[in-house]
Amino acid sequence: MRKRTRYNGEALGKSRLEGCNYGEYPIHKFHCINDPGPGYPLQLHVCGVDEWCKECFRQRIFSDTFSVEYVQSGVFIFQQNNVTMKVKPGEIFLVHLDKDNSMRCETDFATKKTVIMRGPLLRLHLETLGLNQIDRIVPQTHEKIDQIFDRLNELCGRSALVNHREMSLQCYSLLLELAEQSVMQQHPPELQRALDYINQHLEGSLSLTDLAHYSGASKATLHRQFQKYLKISPINYFLDQKLERAKIQLENNLCSIKEIAELFHYASAQYFAHEFKKKYGISPKYYKLRKF
Question: pTM, whole model, 2 decimals?
Fold first, then answer.
């Protein structure tokens, strides 16, 4: 029988990696390039596929890693910059340097392709391309992204001399393609302001009047944009994000159920438990006990 165990990764300066394993999961089928090569501006460090199951969790404090995580199957819940997002097959999330972030598998089983980059010009390229402000990308087309991932994996798997130059070029091509894809998915500015407002006010109640005032759009316009881009109403998006944030609190054993209900301004712990079970099919008490 698989057992859930705590995972404590290496700490480097301010950076810390921790989480939970479940049996042998997550399974990392990675190629690691430890020799960075002769000073290329972008350097491939890790490339491969990893397999997760529902009990797996990772959290980075002040991340020392930049990675491109390309979901192939299942669903991951990713949190970064105080935003919680559900990442589905074909979608990509970016683990950023110097950020607090976490990821967990929501489905029974999930896989993703991973590329970890380093290099003296990595930060500059991310800032220039605007990727340092992007957490999740929903590609409109996948062909070029698939080709780059496959080529990097092929280069890593060779037993012959590592071609650092082509790896660096492929890494840059991947960043360019992600930047182009992120431009295609940009939300209207008023919708983005509304999303920012919601994610900054999860520990409270939501007023559509305040939301409209902050975003600069009417209530009707906001409702249309939420339905068009997110397939959900503003209120339901707010409630989903609130529950996702509460769920992370439970997973990390940070607060009691009563404290979580108070933190997120539920009328009572009983009402919070009712809403939690309605969404996830399990009570917060049992969920918390099952996790630890």
Answer: 0.69
